[in-house]
Structure to design on (326 residues):
């Protein structure tokens, strides 16, 4: 019997009403996340990855943001909930690790106060018990001397420790779904490796599902089971990590994989040297006609410039939006 998804996103559109026009940052996205899995979401900056995560928790200001579609979690459509109801979900059943901990942590509250606040709010614990659990969370994410660190302010902690504190806050109420938005950005490679190891360990211990948003394909290879590739607000490819890395179907995915160094490994295309994807992600106010990737694509055809390709399934478990596979 097929497993029911923990989170099911259907036809999600997120638009921003600006003075220059309506910007559609997420355009008809469909995503399923299953219990206990890590789903990777990759793409260049400006492709709609972070906006998708913020839309799930309804953390975008309205106006100017407008969210349409269906986001089912535990058979509840999160878009139908009122503010009080969605606040009971945020940080409790669904938590988020933000990109930059220094701007996400409150600079005038100690680390312990910020973690214990979430515990008091969602688990109705006393102040003393919430503080004890906050210290326990800091110990769980391997911050040394957690009793001392809990009493310190964010600026006293290193970048790696702040990121661990953010993770501690996110997991303090034992969420079923964790949205991790670039959790290793701006950290050196040693700390990145420690954060990755920590997240894998916590996932195994808690059994939570993770949506891992990143442009770091090495991180996806290390942590994820399935991966979604986004471009200009759309899903252009989806599949199991091993299959997608070994045989990328969309020219954009091929370009992403070709632009990173590989040691002792090559793609089926036989490329060995680093490649670049020409051009930049287009402005969402000036989306190209037809396939959105065609101005940057080396395999562009006439139909690509005129008609947007459908999302098709050329192989079992694989999805791709490209005329080459229709």
């Amino acid at each position: 019997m097929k497993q029911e998804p923990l989170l099911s996103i259907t036809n999600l559109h997120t638009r921003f009403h600006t003075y220059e026009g309506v910007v559609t940052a997420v355009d008809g996205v469909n995503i399923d996340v299953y219990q206990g899995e890590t789903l990777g979401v990759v793409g260049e900056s400006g492709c709609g990855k972070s906006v998708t995560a913020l839309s799930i928790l309804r953390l975008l200001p309205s106006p100017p943001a407008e969210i349409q579609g269906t986001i089912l979690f535990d058979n509840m459509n999160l878009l139908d909930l009122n503010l009080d109801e969605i606040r009971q979900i945020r940080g409790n059943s669904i938590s988020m690790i933000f990109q930059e901990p220094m701007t996400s942590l409150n600079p005038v509250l100690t680390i312990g106060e910020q973690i214990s606040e979430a515990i008091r709010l969602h688990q109705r614990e006393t102040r003393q018990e919430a503080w004890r659990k906050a210290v326990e969370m800091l110990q769980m994410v391997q911050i040394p001397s957690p009793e001392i660190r809990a009493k310190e302010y964010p600026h006293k902690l290193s970048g790696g420790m702040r990121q661990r504190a953010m993770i501690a806050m996110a997991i303090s109420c034992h969420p079923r779904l964790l949205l991790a938005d670039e959790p290793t950005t701006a950290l050196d490679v040693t700390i990145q490796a420690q954060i990755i190891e920590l997240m894998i360990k916590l996932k195994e211990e808690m059994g939570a599902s993770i949506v891992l948003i990143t442009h770091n394909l090495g991180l996806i290879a290390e942590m994820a089971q399935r991966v979604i590739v986004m471009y200009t607000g759309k899903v252009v490819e989806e599949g199991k990590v091993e299959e997608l890395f070994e045989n990328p179907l969309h020219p954009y995915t091929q370009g992403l994989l070709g632009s990173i160094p590989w040691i002792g490994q090559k793609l089926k295309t036989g490329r060995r040297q680093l490649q670049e994807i020409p051009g930049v992600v287009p402005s969402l106010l000036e989306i190209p006609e037809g396939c959105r990737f065609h101005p940057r694509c080396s395999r562009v055809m006439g139909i690509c410039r005129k008609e947007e390709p459908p999302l098709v399934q050329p192989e079992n478990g694989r999805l791709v939006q490209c005329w080459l596979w229709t």
Observations:
- The chain has two domains: 7-93+175-325, 103-174.
- The CA atoms of residues 110 and 153 lie 4 Å apart.
